[in-house]
Amino acid sequence: MKIHYRFCYLLGLLLVLWGVGWSWFSSKEKLSPSETQHQLAMKYGVSFVAGNNGVLSKGLTSTELSVLRFKPIGHHSQNVVMQGLQMALKKYSPAFIKNYLHDIRLTSTLDVQRIAAAGSFSTTTSSIFLAVNSSLDAYGATYYADTFHHELSSLFVYKGPFPVKQWNALLPAGFHYQRNFYGHCPCYEQSKHTMSEWHQLGFMSDYGATRLDNDVNTYAEVLFEHPNNMKTLMSRYPTIRNKARLLAQAYVDQAPHMRSFFEKAYGDSILKGR
Q1: ∠ Cα 217 58 145 (to 5°)
Q2: What is the mean pLDDT of residues 189-196?
């Protein structure tokens, strides 16, 4: 009994020491937002911009400035957004990011044509704008990761090469995207279909029916960050399967190293010719 008591005591002491050591090791390994930002900048060659409006608007055209409105991020903690960007960026090859993205501009609020937005982009400066504040932090890191995929896919579409002809061939017969901007599209303001009906038509949502890049945006979010959801949709809706495969192949065509992400997440069948 005494031996058993001593054994339990020693075991308990070892567990306490292990816990303290692991806590110390974990705290050493956890990076601050600024350290994460530095690591991402070094690996992917992307700059992070946060400052006054003059800094945030640097290089934008007069047309872009007439559309975008933003406020500086101030002293808000960037912990959640950096977690989200780290989640998102690891799915891309550094070569792809360097080809399409120059900087990420962080703002506290962002309006596009006077409508509150989570993100936007500039083809002129190859920039992504992200609204970052405590209200949005509540949605978690995945929210920022989704927004990053969304906006980066717009730069991919506009800077090209993107398989526009093949994408349009997968649209419903006689379909035309509704308007230039989602905020002015009747089908966005008041959906004409249920979600399953939109899926049957090959759209992730009514938002995707407004413009080609918005269509691609909604696919990119799910394709990169929610593969289980995408696999379910692909199994049920042939057009979604074909558009998802086309989009995955388009990324791989520009950055072959991204093949490993898609094949790990989806298997060989996600890419055409497999």
Answers
A1: 30
A2: 70
Of 166, 165, 162, nearest to 242 by C-alpha is 166
User: Which band of pLDDT confidence, cut at 50, 70 and 90, is reported for residue 220?
Assistant: very high
For the chain, give the mean pLDDT.
86
Q: CA-to-CA distance for 186 and 179, rounded, in angstroms? A: 9
pTM greater than the 0.70 cutoff: yes
Question: With contact defined as beta carbons under 8 Å apart, do 122 and 64 qualify?
Answer: yes
What is the predicted pLDDT for the residue at 192?
67
Using a 10 angstrom Cβ sphere, with 0-12 exposed, 13-18 middle and 19 or more buried, the burial of residue 55 is: exposed
The 3 state secondary structure assigned to the chain is: CHHHHHHHHHHHHHHHHHHHHHHHHHHHHCCCHHHHHHHHHHHHCCEEECCCHHHHCCCCCHHHHHHEEEEECCCCCCHHHHHHHHHHHCCCCHHHHHHHCCEEEEEEEEEECCEECCEEEECCCCEEEEECCHHHHCCCHHHHHHHHHHHHHHHHHHHCCCCHHHHHCCCCCCCCCCCCCHHHCHHHHCCCCCHHHHHHHCCCCHHHHCCHHHHHHHHHHHHHHCHHHHHHHHHHCHHHHHHHHHHHHHHHHHCHHHHHHHHHHHCHHHCCCC
Euclidean distance between CA atoms 51 and 7, whole angstroms: 59
Q: What is the pLDDT of residue 72?
A: 93
* Contacting residues for 256 by C-beta, under 8 A, at least 6 apart: 93
Distance, in Å, from the CA atom of 98 to the CA atom of 125, rounded to the nearest integer, reads 13
> How far, in Å, CA of 122 to CA of 61, rounded?
9
pLDDT digits (tens, 9 = 90+) for 45-104: 999 999 899 999 999 999 999 999 999 997 788 999 999 999 999 999 999 999 999 999
